[in-house]
Amino acid sequence: MKYISTRGAGPTGFTDILLEGLAPDGGLYVPETYPQLTADDVAGLKDILVGDGYPRFAAEVLALFIDDIPFTDLEAITRRAYTREKFGTDLIAPVDELEPGLWLGHLSQGPTAAFKDMAMQVLGQFFDYELGRRDQWMTILGATSGDTGSAAEYALLDANRVQVFMLSPLGRMTPFQRGQMYGINSPRIVNVTVPGSFDDCQDLVKAVNADPGFKERYRIGAVNSINWARLVSQVVYYISSLLQVADGGEVSFTVPSGNFGNICAGHVARMMGLPVSRLVCATNENNVLAEFFTTGVYRVRTSTETFVTSSPSMDISKASNFERFFFDLTGRDAGEVRHLFGEVVNHGGVIDIRDRPYATHPKDVYGFRTGVSTHADRVATIADVYARRGYLIDPHTADGVKVAREHLGPEPMIAMETALPVKFGAITREAIGRVPPMPARFAGVLDAGAHTVVCDQGAEQLKTIIAARSLFG
């Protein structure tokens, strides 16, 4: 299995792109071809999931994309990543019926109470394995809108060959999210706050990656979903969720989305031949993705145009993983993608595909649908689910449930959970009159202090911060 960039670079192997992150031409890595699963293959994977458990199942799925790590090593990696001690259940990613026709995929039982743990735990193991095999070190540079940062930091805190620089938008995360990240007092973890939005953080990461000399000197890598290794680890739970619900037929998924990473993994699963009927993209008030799938126009907002909402991890207006989807949408035309994302989007332009030969009508493209949820919708949905089921959901999951209910069909609909409500006390109190109980494992998070450095002067200042605090360079 070889990988190519959405803008033309490559091909190269999995372990190389694992450590590289963003491709040298600014694009995102994707497989040269998606592995295809027959009905017999799917049945065999179900037998493995039921009989051998999620770690072996994950290794089997990942092996479809990875041929430069021996399978025995790959399975050892997934067994270290997916344990009952970390996720509270042997199922790792169970699925329960929420109401007739609507299921909830539980992805938030990991160490930081967010779905990001599902990929980050295995990504941390990948880094440890490959850096040890090469006797190298690495600097992780990432951006977070709320949950990626803590999931990455906890997954890599004890990795001796890795140092993490994580950018986050100043004042735009919840107190719990800030406490989880900023409370870490370790030279291996450097939290960098950036005035503005997540998109501003993401732009800084891309600007540093665009300096090849600096990137090479400090061995800059990525944990954001621009790293294919993280995204392919998410493909695993789409397949496992489908196998828990489907009885030989199709299912649909609704996914709360801002950066298009989680739902892009669902797109990959569908491209592999899985019986996925529809992928429903649920957005909050920052509805750039919903606008595209209903009009064919993709218009990135500025940071001042990006709303601060009560589902803050989706306060994103530049979806970096959208480029991977566009690569498939255009028939894998790297030149077209290079023009649209390397030139048009990067210079503040608008993508309009309505007259493009590869687009008939956006609603028909790859089975995508969409919907928008507001603060009032989130509050009402949290309250309704709690009243009906006695189960608390977080605001992002509430966005997904609200939109999923609008798209129910004859096949089962699985709404993908994104986080536990303990991270979002204010909106939970508004919805049900009290804050969620604090699990014992998170005691003291809100009182952990803040260990941060501010970057308010652009990419050159960020490079100075990395150079000054680097443990390796």
Question: Can you characterise this structure?
Answer:
- The protein has 473 residues and is α/β, with parallel strands linked by helices.
- The protein has a domain at 95-112 and 228-432: Rossmann fold (3-Layer(aba) Sandwich), CATH 3.40.50.1100.
- Helix content is 43%, strand content 15%.
- The chain contains 19 helices and 15 strands.
- The chain has helices at residues 14-20, 39-52, 54-63, 71-81, 84-87, 116-134, 148-156, 175-182, 198-209, 212-217, 228-245, 261-271, 288-295, 322-329, 334-344, 375-389, 395-406, 425-432, 459-469, and strands spanning 3-5, 29-31, 95-99, 102-105, 138-143, 162-169, 189-194, 220-221, 251-256, 276-283, 297-299, 350-352, 368-372, 413-416, 452-454.
- The strands form four sheets. A six-stranded mixed sheet has the order 3-4-14-9-10-13, with helices on both faces. A five-stranded parallel sheet has the order 8-5-6-7-15, sandwiched between helices. Strands 1-2 form a two-stranded antiparallel sheet.
- α12 links the parallel β9 and β10.
- α6 packs across α11, α9 crosses α19 and α16 (375-389) crosses α17 (395-406).
